[in-house]
Amino acid sequence: MSHLDPDDTTPLLRDDASSDDSQDEDYRGRWRSIRVMYFTMFLSSVGVPKLGPRASCKTTDLKTGFTIVITSLWPYLQKVDSSADASFLGWMVAAYSLGQMVASPLFGLWSNHRPRREPLVCSIFINLAANIYYAYAYLPKTNNKYHMLMSRAFVGFGAGNVAVVRSYVAGATSLNERTGAMANMSACQALGFILGPALQACLSFIGENGVTVKFLDLQLNMYTSPALLAAVFGLINILLVLLVLKEHSVNEDGKHIRSINYTSEETVDILEESVETIDHVAAVTSNVLFFIVMFIFAVFETIATPLSMDMFAWTRKEAVLYNGIIMVGIGFQSILVFLLVKAAASRFGDRPVLLAGFGIIFCGFIILLPWGNHFPKIQWADLKNNSLVSQMSEGNGTVEPTGCPYEQTWCQTTPAIYLAQYISSDFLIGVGYPACNVMSYTLYSKILGPKPQGVYMGWLTASGSGARTLGPVFVSHVYTLLGPRWAFGLICGMVVLGAILLLSAYHRLIAFSVRHGRIV
Q1: For the region Disordered, what residue ranges are annotated (predicted)?
Q2: Span 266-287, pLDDT tens digits
Q3: In whole angstroms, what is the distance from residue 419 CA to residue 411 CA?
Q4: What domains sit in the chain, N to C, each tagged with a CATH number?
Q5: Within its chain, how far is the Cα of 267 from the centroid?
């Protein structure tokens, strides 16, 4: 039985003094490969879906965005195919998540039996080709919107490599290193969320018409350039995987072992470990907890813009600007939280940090519940016929109706949410979500132990993709029909159920080696 000292990992990385140089080189090479995985995770998050401003005043018309590419998707979609409406935009959001949900277990299974370099290069190449396909979606004479839909589905399919990335980092780190490595990986993911919109904003100076590269038959403009930049990033990623990434596997003590995901020769230790089984109840519980965490955040980012437009009477432009600033702030805050999580987990343990994260998220949504006697401004149906508005609309300009749409009957009976409530909630959720996110899959990787984790990480990623697909559908319907009290009340109930599930399985959510008595 091993007794791990969390403050001293050096003995775990070296067998004896005579092999210092060799062990140091292995250590450096291992962390170079892990950093390539950080970069891969960063690139995957640059294309992850994020919800943006409302496209119209219809009940389900939520304009949707991604980070680097999809910030400009809605105007690009309207430009290449005028028949596309906001409801079709919802299918494009779902296509990305569904593509990732299908691909994650497949790439995970592949990585269990072959060098991880193979599924990584294949998935990144699919992503690269899909972004080029997206940039050329204007070329076909008809059905352009379906070409854009297919391109987004393939981008999501390529993003299924997140399962391989997580399984690689889990297999290349000791128990002591695992939480820190997973937190760093999540910080890179958060950085992708921040830089995606920033890169899109920088590329917008090219303009809508841009320039035409005749020999490639390519229109280089503010809509196609982000996709092409993503393709360039993909090419760089492929080169890093081919030239830098090496197969590294360590046991939970941190000692190098022969890779077990595709090599027929096994060490004695690994053969002994293979007899011991994974606690599948704990594994399923971790999957459910991860689904709840991702579902809650999908609801949060979906509802932010329409909620602010309804409650604060912001215009679409104001909603994009102010919520963009808030989301960038939450992104930077998340990076700080990921760094603090490493220290908190080493002192208090992974499970208490996860439980505390659920508590903070619960407080964030409780704060959002409407109260008081102040009601939101109503956006009446006959506003456009008002003579004063008609006078104001003369000339080239028009007046955009603001406030809570009259079709949402709850607007007349539900108190308004104050700006201070909204910002306080954003802050709390921006603290609780990163903690829950990194702790849920860190615990999951420790529960799985030294066995190949590709398929299991594939199912975890698939559950997250399913949550990102169902969350926006749930909140758009409940919020539109019943209002924020029901929407946020149900989310609070889901958070409580998640905490109860965590407490009920608390004693089982432990590392594989701890469960089998090899490590204390």
Answers
A1: 1-25
A2: 443 443 444 568 889 999 999 9
A3: 17
A4: 28-259 (1.20.1250.20), 278-380+403-519 (1.20.1250.20)
A5: 37
